[in-house]
Every structure is written in C-alpha cells, then in structure tokens.
Specification:
Layout: H1 2-13, E1 19-20, H2 29-54, H3 60-68, H4 83-99, E2 102-103, H5 104-120, H6 136-143
Parallel strand pairs: 1-2
Helix pairs in contact: 1-4, 2-4
C-alpha cells in the first residue's frame, strides 16, 4: 500500500497539490473549519462506492476477501488488506488535496483521525450507536 502511495506524497511535497502551510495561505478563515467536513464528506462518499465495487463478484475474491477473512473483526484487521484493496480505498484521501485546498496540519490531523476511526470500527467496542455514523456494530455486521 505504501509503495503505491509514494507518488502522491512525492507530488504533494514537491508542490503539485493544493496543500498550504498556514491559514493566511488558504482560501480564508472560513475554510480553516470547512475543510474538515468537506474532506470527510468527499472521502466517505468515494470510499463507500469503492468499497461497494470491491464487493462485486469480479473483484471480491481476489482483492477484498483477504480483509473479510476476519469474520469477527479485530483492530489488526483494520489495516489488513490486499495491497490494491488498501490502495483503492485510500485513493480519495490522496486525491482530495489535488482537487481542494487543504492545510497540511489539517491533513495530518485528518489522517490521524481516519486511522483511529478505522481501528475503532474494527475493535468490537460498540461505543457508537448511530443510524447515521458507521460504528463498530455496523462494521461488525458487514464482516459477519
Ligand atoms: Zn467489505
Ligand atoms: Zn472491515
């Protein structure tokens, strides 16, 4: 997964993305806050469709089944993917800063949040009980 991701990070550090250093370099003060829900909405939308596509019979067995071999998920399963599966589901995170401005510190914060989120939906601790937000109970049902 990391190998496939290197070109994106290389392009980002070489200045080809819309990432910026401080609030003064961004679109405005309002965007310091707006980039967070925009990033979550964008990535969640596309990851939903990519994940759904990975469940198509032509892709599932080769690419996505390695993740679902954990019928009862564990925190370790959250990062256990076929490399192309993991890369495909990470694509929206890497494409976002090429389409929309993104503060580099917000990017790190969002990456940290997403990693924690990914672990928590696989940890079997049903801390979230929401019809809107995907939690461990919902994702455990998906694995079952
Ligand atoms: Zn799945
Ligand atoms: Zn899973």
């Amino acid at each position: 997964m990391a190998v496939f991701t290197v070109p994106f990070f290389l392009a980002e550090v070489r200045g080809y993305s819309k990432m910026y250093d401080s609030s003064a370099d961004g679109p405005g003060k309002w965007y310091d806050y707006a980039q967070f829900p925009l990033f979550i909405a964008f990535t969640d939308f596309f990851i939903y469709w990519i994940h759904r596509g990975l469940h198509h019979k032509s892709l599932y067995k080769k690419l996505h089944k390695p993740h679902h071999k954990w019928i009862v998920p564990t925190p370790y399963a959250s990062h256990a993917f076929h490399p192309l599966d993991g890369f495909a589901q990470s694509l929206p995170y890497h494409i976002f800063p090429f389409l929309f401005p993104l503060n580099k510190f917000a990017y790190i914060a969002l990456f940290t949040f997403i990693n924690i989120w990914t672990v928590t939906i696989h940890d079997g601790e049903y801390a979230m009980n929401s019809k809107i937000i995907n939690g461990a109970a919902c994702h455990t049902m998906h694995h079952l």
